[in-house]
Amino acid sequence: MDQETYEFLQNLVNDDSLHWTTIRFMLSCILRHRTDSQLIFYMYGAANSGKSTLAKWLEYVLGPERCATTTLAKLRSRFGTFQIVNKTLVIIPDVINRFTDDFESFLKNVSRGEIITVEQKFVNAIGYRPNCNILIHGNHDIIFKDPGLQRSVIKIPCFSTPKEGKPHMLDTLINNSPEIIRWAFGCPISHIDYRTVVGLKEILNNEVEDDPVLQWCTTVLFRCHPDQGEPLGLKAENNRSTLYGNYSFWCEQNDFFPLFPSKFPHRLLHTLSSLNAPVLKRRRSGGIYLLGVSFTGNPSDKIRLVRSEPLKRFTEEISDPAKSSTDAPILF
Length: 332
Prior knowledge:
Strands 2-3-6-1-7 form a 5-stranded parallel sheet, covered by helices on one side. A 4-stranded mixed sheet has the order 8-9-10-11, with no helix packed on it. The chain has a two-stranded antiparallel ribbon with strand order 4-5. Residues 192-209, 225-238 and 284-332 have low confidence and may be disordered. The termini are far apart. The chain is an alpha/beta fold. It is built from 12 helices and 11 strands. The longest helix has 15 residues, at 17-31. A hairpin with a 2-residue loop joins β8 (280-284) and β9. The chain is globular. The chain has 2 domains: 3-202, P-loop containing nucleotide triphosphate hydrolases (Rossmann fold); 205-331, Arc Repressor Mutant, subunit A. Residues 4-174 form the SF3 helicase domain. Keywords: ATP-binding, Nucleotide-binding, Plastid. InterPro entries: Helicase_SF3_DNA-vir (IPR014015), NrS-1_pol-like_helicase (IPR045455), P-loop_NTPase (IPR027417). It comes from Glaucocystis incrassata. GO terms for molecular function: ATP binding.
């Protein structure tokens, strides 16, 4: 990228190396439309430091089909939530110094991919499952009270000294868009301190050694056999014996940040497909059925996975399908 753009980004994070990497990750996550964990990025600091300029550049690059800029008031209005439908990024600019409990609950539901009610004028209200990241910026640090929401928020302090005479900076960013995108996509995972910026490591992982779901499948799930060792899910005597519980515990033991339960079934189905597992996916009223998945390598072992309703408890059962006349159900 050119010198002026580089200095703008450096000044935005006040030359802090961790925040420099974090903002690079943020751009990579947003520009790649990676919504696996639906993160909330919160940029805060002095006015005129470049936060809104960067947000406007993202809005320009993504376009109205992918990005929506809105306000807290609009999101809590009757028809306001319709703006986020089919968007991968929602920008909320110039927030005040605190959020209401009601709005924190709304943000938490969005970040977890929970179904929310959206309504359009003269059209019946529908349930919609958000699939987007959120970028918020303001002048003050906000303390999020909800512990569950805190795990989805990545804060980027912008304590740079405002520079005057830069009204053309947005045009400069637009002209240098290819270089900025190339720089963002080159974000090295090894430079991210995920203990400080929770969950960053998981989003960009595409390799077996870094993808927690893929590694869990190859090291735990595929080695599980109902008649050997400690099987997953038999009677679900404790949380570790469920599929998600075992995966979550494995992540803790291996320093990974686990996906939320609502995200885990979709990622597991996608991972099994990427491994060329003999999968036949069928949608029915009871959930998503996955037929023909062999966990033991034996072609006669066929296990059916069923995604449960959102309000049901995450439990699973695994039996030996080779000894049964019917496929064994596994509930997430």
